[in-house]
Design goal:
Blueprint lengths: L14 H10 L20 E6 L7 H11 L2 E6 L3 H10 L8 E6 L3 H6 L30 E13 H7 L19 E4 L5 H14 L3 H10 L3 E3 L2 H8 L11 E5 L15 E3 L5 E9 L6 H10 L3 H11 L2 E2 L8 H6 L11 H19 L2
Parallel strand pairs: 1-2, 1-3, 5-6, 5-7
Antiparallel strand pairs: 3-9, 4-7, 4-8, 4-9, 4-10
Helix pairs in contact: 1-12, 6-7, 7-12
Length: 361
Amino acid sequence: MRRSRAPITTTARTGATALALLLAASGCSLVGGDDDSSSSASADRVVLVTHDSFVLPEELEKKFEVESGLDLVVRSSGDAGSLTNKLVLTKDDPTGDVAFGVDNTFASRALDEGVFAPVDVTLPAGAEKFALPAGTTDGADLVPIDNGNVCVNVDTTWFADKGLTPPTSLDDLVDPAYRDLMVTPGATTSSPGLAFLLATIAKYGDGWQDWWTKLMANGAEITAGWSDAYEVDFTQGGGDGDRPIVVSYDSSPAFTIADDGTSTTTALLDTCFTQVEYAGVLAGASNTRGAQELVQFLLAPEVQAALPESMYVFPVAQGTPLPADWASYAVQPTAPLSVPAADITAHREDWLREWSDVTSR
């Protein structure tokens, strides 16, 4: 769901171009770079198609290979939106056996297009609450693997050094006091960007376009993806960024720990929208047995325990131990903003067009 690097930082003026490419690709987000699209047919391997941010410790990948007797081949396909779009475009000749990384903002698109097949796995305790609503899958299955919340993050150290009060809400972000201080990944090119758009729709209803108009007039910057927003433009992202407000994740403050053991950032928990990442067996997979085994392996206790530090997300398995810093700084919202899955399915493309229009003016 995250950490997918886009090569070029964009501004709001690129929104119309991004949307044109988006619609030309017949989906809700841009197709990522080309990967090896040769046949995955082999009884000796299983091919995982995923987003650029998929990372597991090498020892876990080796563990799967030893236990299954299969070689694990990983092919990346951009951010979650790019991944979904590529899965749809290749559904009649899939480039792998398993897909991981389609999230709840894009799941209905993949399912409606018949990308996934049924899967028979055992969910760990707690995972069922992250499953898609009943009736969504129409015979196919997407299995919840991890979750997290997209939230506005603030560099509290920057505001303290300037003697300024940091924002605490979405309403604050359109206040002239915060002009030219915010950066967000775009909704048409980034899954966290889309999640943030959905958060504002949940918050403001029919008034969300007016809020975005005010936000853009207040100097907000839009980038192609999360990595450019956080790692390049955000003041605590490790680069030379000059924007102390960024759209990131509820787990992000656990990775900005100062020498004194406190975090230099905070997530605004009233701005959050929940993302869930799924795995599924691809319809037409060459190695369905291996695909089933891999999906089940992603739910194994050792894999679930590795997710926080490997991919900065929360496991779906109840009782999975978390890193020490997460207890203090990776705080999840108790009442995140939400949009019903049916509404996302019905209105996603229209919302993206309208968002692009607003942010391109």
